[in-house]
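In this supplementary section we document a worked example of the pipeline. Step one takes a protein sequence of length 159 as its only input; no multiple sequence alignment statistics are reported here. Step two produces a three-dimensional model, which step three serialises into C-alpha cells for compact storage. The input and output of this example are shown verbatim.
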Amino acid sequence: MTEPELEIVDIIAGHQPNGDPVLEKLRCVRVKDGYALAEAPLFAAAGRLDVIKLIGEKGDYQVVTRSGNLTIRFVSKHPISVVLDEYRVEFEKMGAEISNVSDRFFSITAHVSIGFNTIEHLLSEVVKAFPESAWAYTNVFDGDSGEPLQWWSSILKEQ
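The serialised model returned by step three reads:
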C-alpha cells in the first residue's frame, strides 16, 4: 500500500495588528471533504487528523470533521530539548504525541478521551519544573469570544 501524497496548505493561524493574516504551512492529505491535517498546527485552531475545507484563496478554512485530537502549544525560556528529555516519556505514556519541536516551543497532540484533567495535571507539573514556561490549547476555545468550542462533547458521549 502506498503512502498518501502530502500537500502543503496555508491556513490562517491569526492576524497581525494591521489585520493581515498570519499563515501557517501544514502538511495535509487530500481527502473527499477537503484536507486531513497530517500534523498538529502550532497556532491554527485545528487538530492533527481534523479534516478542513479551504474557503477562498487567503488561508480561510472551516473544520469539517474533528478527529478528537486536542492540540496544545508549549513555550518556554528553557531549552525545549531539556524539557523533553525530562517529560517526553510522560507525555507518551499518557498517549500524547510531540511535534513541531524547536528551541523554544513544541506541540502536543492528545486525544480528548485522555481527559482534560489528566493532560492539565501533567502540564502543570512541567511548568512547575520549568518556570517561565506556558501552554495553551489551540483548538479548545473560540479565538474571538474565548468561549469553549465544545466540539468534544459528542465525541465523549460516543465512548
